[in-house]
Amino acid sequence: MNMKEFLNFINGEYIKNASGKTFDNRNPVDNSLIGKVYEAGRPEVNAAVMAAQAALKGDWGRISVTERCKLLDALAVEINRRFDDFLQAEIADTGKPHHLASHVDIPRGAANFQVFIDTIKSASTESFNMRTPDGKTALSYGVRVPRGVIGVICPWNLPLLLMTWKVGPALACGNTVVVKPSEETPATATLLGEVMNAVGVPKGVYNVVHGFGPDSAGAFLTEHPDVDGITFTGETRTGTAIMKAAAEGIRPVSMELGGKNAAVVFADCDFQVAVDTVTRSCFENAGQVCLGTERVYVERPIFDKFVAALKLKAEAMTPGQPFDAATKIGPVISKEHQAKVLSYYAKAREEGATVVTGGGVPDMPAALKDGCWVQPTIWTGLPETASVITEEVFGPCCHIAPFDSDEEVLGKVNTNRYGLATAIFSQDIGRANRMAQGIRVGLTWINSWFLRDLRTSFGGSKQSGIGREGGLHSFEFYTDLRNVMVKF
Q1: What is the mean pLDDT of the segment spanning 151-174?
Q2: Which end of the chain has fewer surrounding CB within 10 Å, N or C?
Q3: What total of structural domains would you count in the chain?
Q4: Are residues 277 and 420 in the same domain?
Q5: Looking at residue 141, which CATH number applies to its domain?
């Protein structure tokens, strides 16, 4: 394999850095070295923010909505034209199976630009007529303007998808962006710079700075006084640090943070649909999905049957090379994350869990033994206070517990500091809807999971986030609403 270099992308050009500092980008499948990433320091972050500011005052700030939409459409077309390049880059960074990246990550990465074309074209604001005390008329109307330079801090689990989910509406609304991708997954954000240049997006509109969080590109970007808003997807602890940084200058934030999502399975469910769907929500992408399930509550009459069925499904999740058709699950993202997940597996045993299946590292072929593998794991028998029931693991695992009444399970689901998502399985739609309205989360699925209409709101409650994105809801963060009053 040729050694790659991942450079920062600033003002339409790829640059290294003033310090010469680099860090390794490794493939989690076998821990092999993909290439070197040039870490951005304060000079590079400052240059990126200045380039983004200049673009707002230049051609980008003057073009019409129609012209912006043409560029967004061209971006989507070019991503799809270079589909294989993005696919190879994403798989090398994440190790996820080909079938998953090719059906979810890359198509949604392109679609995230296209969906906001229709949204921005149909966006409206308010207007009111009123009589003034002197008998004249006043027209009051709203105007939405770009917020400015948006700092985009991206996660590693769905790198292109979740980055474009933020960059798409930001650009549609006329902002410029400085993207800090995860240090684990630098490739597709870097590659997107080539696409921006190819379709004619003005220099400085899209910038990428690589690095870590504290005392690195992440902190330098979020602390920068000329960044007008910060959007972040990641763990709650990092979100707290970003909110503190954003408090300087009173800058708005939009955040999707951690989760400890539940699935509620009633005895009257379509059993096969429930088992198949919970299998996906627990184990897809090696459990590294913000919206994934780690707590499963099953009504007692079908509890044993459900545990047995999910056990069979988990044990059929064959690990392997991403391009092997037999591969059903990839590695976790890094050695560090592997150690974290395995530490929770150990905690579950220490706290008295019954290990239904998994609980360790699978036996892999010699070529893959140094990869970041963990087994899909199911536990039962733990109290609601156990670590793996209260804390986010972000691995392919779940705890399954029985329940006897709606009130009991509602209390268990809601007794958690997170509130991102839940899934409910029942053929009694009235019961399912009552339950959905009682659960304190931002997103609820009934008899499904990961089904998204991109026009609808997306975000978490409690410690799972602040703000909503998606469709018209994105305008609350990516634009500044102003009022104009005309007397005549």
Answers
A1: 98
A2: C
A3: 2
A4: yes
A5: 3.40.605.10
Gap between the Cα atoms of 66 and 63, Å rounded: 8
- Looking at the structure, do residues 236 and 275 belong to the same domain, yes or no? no
234 with 318, same domain? no
% pLDDT > 70, the chain:
100
**What average pLDDT is seen over the chain?**
97
* Per-residue confidence (pLDDT) for residue 3, from 0 to 100: 83
Residue 459 lies in a domain: no
Name every residue whose Cβ is closer than 8 Å to that of residue 47 and which is 6 or more positions away in sequence.
10, 11
* Per-residue pLDDT at 1 exceeds 70: no
Question: 333: which 2 tokens?
Answer: 């993202």
> Domain range spanning residue 468?
4-257+464-487
Both structure tokens of 407: 């009130």
The answer for residues whose C-beta is within 8 angstroms of residue 183's C-beta and 6 or more apart is 23, 37, 210, 211, 212
- For residues 245 and 293, state if they share a domain: no
Question: Are 201 and 225 a contacting pair, CB within 8 Å?
Answer: no
Catalytic (active-site) positions: 256, 290
CB-neighbour burial class of residue 374 (10 A; exposed 0-12, middle 13-18, buried 19+): buried
- 332 & 420 share domain: yes
pLDDT tens column, 409-445: 999 999 999 999 999 999 999 999 999 999 999 999 9
CB 134 within 8 A of CB 214: no
Give the chain's largest Cα–Cα span. 86
**Same structural domain for residues 225 and 269?**
no
- Cα 277 to Cα 311: distance, rounded to the nearest angstrom: 14
Within a domain: residue 333?
Answer: yes
Look at residue 88 and tell me whether its pLDDT is greater than 60: yes
Q: Which residues contact 312 (CB under 8 A, 6 or more apart)?
A: none
* Shared-domain flag, residues 225 and 345: no
CA 22/CA 213 separation, integer angstroms: 15
Strand order in the sheet with 479-487: 127-131, 137-146, 479-487
Same domain, 412 and 379: yes
Band (pLDDT 50/70/90 cuts) for residue 388 is very high
198-207 exposure pattern, b = at least 16 Cβ within 10 A, e = fewer? ebebbbbbbb
Q: What's the pLDDT tens digit per position in 310-362?
A: 999 999 999 999 999 999 999 999 999 999 999 999 999 999 999 999 999 99
What pLDDT does residue 4 have?
96
Q: Is the dihedral of CA 26, 32, 34, 35 positive or negative?
A: positive
> Are 275 and 311 in contact, with CB atoms under 8 Å apart?
no
